[in-house]
Amino acid sequence: MENATNPDTNFEWQYTSKQEGYTIYQSGSHIRGDFIQVFVPDSPYRDEKGKRKLITYLHGFALCLPKFYEAHLEALAKKGYYVFFPDFQNSDYPDELDQNKLIPSQNKRHLYFWYQMVIDTITQRKTPSTEKFVQQKRKAEEFHRIREDENEPSPLKCLIIALALVVIILIVRLIYLFSPEYSKNLVKLISTVGLSLLYALQSGWKGRLA
Fold this sequence. Notes:
By secondary structure, the protein is α+β, with helices and mostly antiparallel strands. The chain has 7 helices and 7 strands, in the order ββββββαβαααααα.
């Protein structure tokens, strides 16, 4: 991984990853809703007019992780297409390009995030109530954004969604007790749906839909 800066725009990519036949450039964060990956082919395809081809790869609701489409994205890049994969939906997926570098405990934080949301919504706290939660940087940032934003969801909405997520995640973990990898990915998907529901009726989303 290394940072790369475009000299024409002074825009800095947070990560780059060289692959066989193409390079991945990445910036932003899933949890902030400003994530983007760009697949740049080593040998760009050109049509009969000499023009290059660019594809904007759109994902389904809550299916915001490039890893889900890895084989197809790779195939397109190797054919010479420039591929843009944006995630402008607030989602709970990791930003790390190499999923093997993730700290194992990070996969267990989703349940605690929603549990803490229940507790702190009931107690009407504006900041996380435990130091352990604050140390989970991405989760703490999202919690703060939800609780401090001028268009924050109502306490009742936070409570209902967070409580539902706690129950659903517990059920998923119980059902897939012997399939931890499947359970982990499903929990990430469920948690992302929960974040989306929190913002579904907020003014920011209304503006995007208008």
